[in-house]
Amino acid sequence: xxxxxxxVRCLSPSGLHRMNYYEWGERDNPRVLVCVHGxxxxxxxxxxxxxxxxxxxxxVCPDVVGRGLSGWLRDPAAYTIPQYVADMVxxxxxxxxxxxxxxxxxMGGLIGMALAAQxxxxxxxxxxxxxxxxxxxxxxxRIAAYVGADPDWATPAEAVAYLREISAPFGSLSEAQWLELxxxxxxxxxxxxxxxxxxxxxxxxxxxxxxxxxxxxxxxYEAIRCPTLAIRGADSDLLACDTWQRMGASGPxxxxxxxxxxxxxxxxxxxxxxxxxxxxxxxx
Length: 284
Fold this sequence. Notes:
Elements: E1 3-12, E2 15-24, E3 32-36, H1 47-53, E4 58-62, H2 81-95, E5 100-105, H3 107-116, E6 123-129, E7 134-135, H4 137-144, E8 152-153, H5 156-166, H6 175-183, E9 186-188, E10 194-196, H7 203-210, E11 215-216, H8 218-222, E12 228-233, H9 241-247, E13 255-259, H10 271-282
Parallel strand pairs: 3-4, 3-5, 5-6, 6-12, 12-13
Antiparallel strand pairs: 1-2, 2-4, 7-11, 8-10, 9-10
Helix pairs in contact: 2-3, 5-6
C-alpha cells in the first residue's frame, strides 16, 4: 500500500501556514482514522500502524504545525492546543468526511480529547496513547529539559545516539527501528550539520502553560461521549496508574490497556502493540 503526501493551508492569528499530511489506503474509503503524534515527533511515527490498518481505513497522519514537513508559525505563542484543534478541523474539511476515528499519542491525544469533547464532534472512537486528563509535574519537567534545546550533530549516527538517550522510555527497540525514528525526525542544515525537524520555539508556550505543577483536564475528559481506549506504557511517568484507572471509571469510561516494558510512549512498531489498537477499532 503506497503512502501519499499532501498538504492543506490553515489559519492562525499571524497568517496562513501549511500543514503536511500523509494518507494510506483508498481515498474513497468512508472509514477514516486520523493519527496524531507527540510534542516533538512527526507523522512518520505511524508508518507501521498505518500500513497495517490501511486495508480497513483511509489512514491520515498529519505533521502538526511546527513539526515534520509542516510550516512554522510566525508567532510561537500560537503553538497551543486550540490552534492545533483548529488546524485539524481544517484538515477534516479538506478530507471531506463527517466522522473519524482518532488515535493520538501524548500531545496528539490532548488534541483528540479537545476535539472529542465538543458538541457535534466528528470523533466517533478515540484512542489515547499514554496521555490523560492529568499530567504529572515530573513528566513535564523531563520533557521541558530537552524540548527547545535545538541540539545539532555532525552525523546522523550521533543523532540516533541522542534520540536513544532522550527517548529511552519508548522501550526496547531494534537498531533499525531507532534509525527509522531518527531519519524521519532530523534534517541537514545549510552548514552541513544535522538537527531536529521541528521549530524549537514550540517550547515557549509549553513552558509558559504548564509551569511547575501537574495539569488537570478532567472536565474536558468527562465531556467525551464516544467509545475510548486509554493505552498506558506500564513504566510511564506521564500517565500515572491512578489517573489511567480513573479514566476507566469516569467520563467515557475508557477501555484500559497497558503495554509492559514501555514508558512514555508506546510507538506501535510491533505487531502486539498494533493489535491493541486494531482490536479496539475494528471489533466494536
